[in-house]
Amino acid sequence: MANTSILVVGGGFAGMTAALEAAELGHEVYLVEKAPYLGGRVMQLNKYFPKFCPPSCGLEIQYQRIKNNPLVKFFTLAEVVQVDGNKGNYTVTIRVRPRHTAPNSVDLSALVKDLTGETVSSFEFGLARRKGLYLDVPFAFPQRYVVDKTCLTDADKAKLAACPSIDLTEEEKLIPLQVGAIVVATGWQPYDVTRLSNLGAGTIKNCISNMQMERLASPYGPTQGKIVRPSDGRAPKKVAFVQCAGSRDENHLSYCSYICCAASLKQAQYVREQYPDAQITIYYIDLRTPGRYDTFARKVLADPKVQAIKGKVAAVAQDKAGDDVWVTVEDAVSGAKSVERFDLVVLATGMQPSLATQKLPLNVAMDEEGFLVGGEEQGIFVAGCAKQPLDVMKTAQSATAAAMKAIQTVRGR
Amino acid sequence: MSKTVRIEPDVQFVKELQEVGGEDLKKCYQCATCSVACPMAPADNPYPRKEMIWAQWGLKDKLLNDIDIWLCHNCGTCSDLCPRGAKPGDLLAALRNMTYRKLVPPAIIGEWMSSPKHLPMLVGIPAVVFGIIWMIRASMVGSFFPVTEDGRIIYGNLFPGDFTIDPVFGLTAIFVLICFLVGIRNLIQGFQTTVKDTFVIGYKKPSIKEAIVDAIKYEVLQHTRFKECIDEPADEERVKGHLLLFYGFVACFIVTSIVAVAHWGGKIIPFLAPIGHTPMPLWSPVKILANVGAVLLLVGLTLLTRRRLNLDRRKSRSNYYDWYLLGVIWAVTLTGIGSEVFRLAGVAPVAFFTYYLHLISIFMLIAYLPWSKLGHLVYRTTALIYARYVGRLPIGEKLIEDEKVFVI
Lengths: 413, 408
Hints:
The complex is a heterodimer.
Chain A: E1 6-9, H1 13-23, E2 29-32, H2 55-67, E3 72-75, E4 78-86, E5 89-96, H3 109-114, E6 118-120, E7 129-131, E8 133-134, E9 146-147, H4 154-161, E10 173-179, E11 181-184, E12 188-190, E13 207-209, H5 210-217, E14 238-245, H6 260-274, E15 279-284, H7 293-301, E16 306-310, E17 315-318, E18 325-331, E19 336-342, E20 344-349, E21 351-353, E22 380-382, H8 392-411
Parallel strand pairs in A: 1-2, 1-11, 2-3, 11-22, 13-20, 14-15, 14-20, 15-16
Antiparallel strand pairs in A: 4-5, 5-10, 6-7, 8-9, 12-21, 17-18, 18-19
Helix pairs in contact in A: 1-2, 1-8, 5-6, 6-7
Chain B: H1 11-19, H2 33-37, H3 49-57, H4 60-64, H5 68-71, H6 77-81, H7 88-102, H8 107-112, H9 119-141, H10 155-158, H11 161-194, E1 200-201, H12 208-220, H13 224-227, H14 233-265, H15 285-309, H16 320-345, H17 348-366, H18 376-390, H19 397-401, E2 406-407
Antiparallel strand pairs in B: 1-2
Helix pairs in contact in B: 1-7, 9-17, 11-18, 12-18, 14-15, 15-16, 16-17
C-alpha cells in the first residue's frame, strides 16, 4: 500500500502553508527547511502584501498551527540529499546540519555579547555582522540560537563549551523518510546584483537592493528600522528606485518578477513615512501593478513627492567626491536624457528561483530560468515561487493547490 | 495629450528595414536602456530608443531625415545591454543602409546595391566596358597581353590613360560628385526639418567654416568621436582597422592625384609629365607611398574582417552592405597588389587579367559609391559638421561634472 505521508521541501510561506493544509486533513507531513528557522523570505521583509503586516504577525499564525499540529514534523538546517523510489513510495534522505544548541529555547543573548568572532550576516544581506552564536530575528521559529563554528575564535569556543545549553560536538545527521508525494516549495533568492555591471555590481555603497531596503526598514534590522544611507548613516533626502534591475532582460532574468513594482511603491511609502521632506523617483519600463496593486499604486503616486518616470536606469555610478549616487536615464516620454544625483538608490532586483543555482536530487523538468515545469506524473508538486514569481497571497493559494494534489496522490481518488 | 498626432505608418518601409539589417526591431519594448548606454547620445532626444519606436511604427520620413543615425558609430554597447535582443545598433546601421538606398537618384542603382541578387549586374557593367576596350585595343596592338620589346609589361600600352581609363573614370567621378551634391542637399534639407536648434550654455556655436574645419580635423582625420565608442578590445581593433583603412585610402588617393595632375598638367607644363609617368620605379617616393597605402589597406582589412567574423550573432549581425564594401575593398587591394607583383614578375597573361579585375573592382568601388556603405564618407561627414554647427553634442560626463554645460 502506498505511503500516505507527504514531504514538503522548503519551509517558507508556501512550504508552511502546504504542510499545514495537508496535516490539517490528517496527513503526516515532513517539512524540510535549509535555514535555521521557518518563514523563508517573508521573515526578511519589513511589511508584506496585501495588508502590510509585519512578518511577525502573519507568520505567527502559521507557527502556532505548526506547533499545535503533531502531524507536522519539521527539520531546520536540513536539506534533501537523495530521493529514491517513485510516486506513492519515495524514500527521501535528508541531511540535518548541527545546530549545537539545546532543543529548549534558552535565551543566550548575554553569551552572544561575550563573543568576539564575527562574520557578515547573510540574513541582513551584508548590511550587518553577526557573531558565531546568533538568532537572525527575535521572533524566529524555532526560537533557538544557532552556532556557526566557522566564525568562532578559540576564546569563543571555550566560552560556548562552558555553556550547558551548547554542544559543540553535535554532528550532522542523515535521516531517511518514507513519503508518498513531494511538494517542492524551494522559493526564490534575490537576483545577484554583482552581475549587474552597469548598475554598479553591488560595489556602490549607497546603491542597495530592494531586499536590503526591507532590512533597513525593519524594526529588527541592522538600523532598528531607521532608513539611512549605509555609507554614513545619514537620512536620505532624494531616493531613486530602479525597476527591472536584471528583470525582463534576456541577459539576466528574462521574465517579470510580478511584485517588484508594488514593492518599490511600498518602500517609497516606508521612506515617505519616515521623512516628510524626502523626494522619491521611481524609474520604470512599465509600472506593473496588477489587480488590487493598481489602487495601491494610485494612492502612493498621489503623493506629490513620489514621481514615477518611464525610462530604465542603465547606468549607476558613485560620485567621485562623495557618497552620492549618479544615475543616467532617459525619460522615454519627454525624450530627455539626464544624469541625476541621489542620496540613496534602490535596485528593484527580481526573484530568481532558488533551484536555478542550487539543484535538488529530483528528476523534474525545469525551464531555462530554473522554474520547475513538471513533476505531477511523479507525484511531485510545485508550490510558490519555485514555479513562478508570486506575491505572498498567491503563494499561499498555490501551496494549498499543491497540497491538495499531493493528498489526491497519496490517497487515490 | 494636448495635440493629436496622426501617425501614418509605412508598413513596406518596416519590411525593407528588416531586410537590410533591422530584423529584430520589433522586439523592442522601449525601456530606454540603449539611449542611456550610448556614450554619444545627446541629452535632448537621445538615440537610439526613439529610432526603435519610429521604426516599429514605420515613420519613414522621420527616420530618413534623422541626423542621429550618422552620429552613431555602432560600437554595439546598446545592443550588448539590450534586454530584448532587439539590436538597436544594427537598426541604426540598417537605417544608414536605407539612406544609401533611397537618398540619391537614380533609384535603380540603390535597388541594385541593396541585395546580392543584383551583384552579377554590378560586376557585369565594368566587366563589359573594360572587356570591350581590351578587345579593341588587343586588335590594335596585335596582342591580348602586349609586352614591350625589352619584355616589360606596361598596362598603359593596353589601356592607355588618355582615351580609355581617364575618360571612363573621369566621367564616373563627375557623375558620383553630382550625385553626392544632390545627396548632401537632400540630407541637409532633411536635417533642417527634424533637428531642432539646441541651446547649450557653455558651447560656443561655431561658424559653418569652423564646424567644417573642426569636423575634418577631429572626427575625420583623428577619428576622435569614433574613439569615444571603445568599451571592449574588439572595438579598439575596429577603430584601429578603420583608421588604417582610411589612411590607406588617403595614400592611394594622393598617389592617383599626383599621377593625374602630373600627367594632364604635363600636357601644359611639360616638365611635370615625368612625375606622372607609369609604371614608376620602386624607389620613386610616389610608388613608395602607393605601396605603404597597400600595406595599410591590407592590415586594416584584416582587422575589420576578423572582427566581423567574430561577432556575437546574438548581439550584432553583419549585413550585405557591410560585406559588399569589405569585399570590394579586398578585391581592389588584392588585385592592385597582384597587378604590381605579376607585372614585376613578367607574367603577362596573369598580370593583364589581374589588372582587368583591378579596373572592375575600382569601378565597383567608385561608380556605385553614393549607394554603398562607403557613402558614409560624405553623408556622415555632412552630419557631423551639421551636428557641430547646431550643437548636438553627447551628454559628456566630463562637461556635466565640470558643470559647464546646461542643455535647455
